[in-house]
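Lab notebook page, bench 4
Experiment: in silico fold of construct C2
Operator: M.H.
Input chain length: 125 residues
Purpose: comparison with the prior construct
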Amino acid sequence: MPRVSLTQLTAALRESWGPDTCAPEDVSSWTEANPSRGQCATTAIVVHDYFGGDLVRGEVHVGGVQVDYHWWNLLPDGTDIDLTRTQFSSDEKVTGRVVIPRPTGATRLDREYAFLANRVATKIS
């Protein structure tokens, strides 16, 4: 991996998001006006590729009912990095915080992660 600053990585990620890097259940609500929609898991794993640390997962609640999960990063220096928090409307609340292991083996987002990781690598190389 090339050395990259968090600012450079953030810019490359934001330029790389699209409906094809979005979680399948969020594709219908992904828009250019809200490009971080559905990008949390793939984005968190790409950030982990470059900076390590921990993956963190919380629950997304609407009206007190859990409707989804949200992922972000905890860097080795203790800094929380959540590049996709802006995807949520005021009705969606992220609660809780659990450090989770990086997925190993096949996952449901492998294709989306591959698209995002490849686009980011091209932009920062």
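Observations: Residues 33 and 80 are 24 Å apart (CA to CA). Strands lie at 54-62, 65-74, 80-81, 92-100.
Next step: discuss at group meeting.
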